[in-house]
Amino acid sequence: MDRVMVTAGALYVIVLLRAGGTFAVGWLAGAGARRSRFAGRMSSARFRRAERAIRRWGAPVVAVSFLTVGFQTAANFLAGSMRMPLPRYLPALFVGGAAWALLYATAGVGALEALGRLFAERTALGVSAVAVLLLAVCGTVAYRRRRDAEAP
Length: 152
Known about the structure:
Low-confidence stretches: none
Number of strands: 0
Oligomer: single chain
Helix content: over 70%
Number of helices: 6
Mean pLDDT: 86
Order of helices and strands: HHHHHH
Distance between the termini: 51 Å
Radius of gyration: 21 Å
Largest sheet: none
Structural class: mainly alpha
C-alpha cells in the first residue's frame, strides 16, 4: 500500500505540473491570438458566447477529462486559451488530477506487479503475452490506417 501511495503522490505532482503547464501555454496562446490578425474573429458574438460557456461549464469538463485518454491535454489547453478563471480551473485540476493519479497508481502498479510475477515465474508465457499485445496494437493501427486511407 505504501508503494501505491508514493506512486500516486508522484503522479499527482506530475499531472499538476503537466496540466497546469498546458493551461498556462493555452493562456499565452490565447493572449497571443487576441493580439494577432485573429483578434477580429475572437471578438465576434459567437466566440464570446463560447468563451462564456467554457468559463462557466468548463470546470466539470476539465475534471472529467482526466479520466479519458487523449482528451485531457486538449481540455486544459482550451481552458487556458479561453481564459477560464483560476478559481474555477484550479479545483477541477486538483480533483481531476487526484482521480487520474489514483487510477494510474492502483491499476498501473497492479499491472506492473502482475507482469513482473508473470515474467519471473513463467518467462515464456510473459514473452508470449507481450508479443500478442504488440501484435494486437500493430494490427489495430494498420487496420485504422487502411480504413482511413480508403475513406476519401
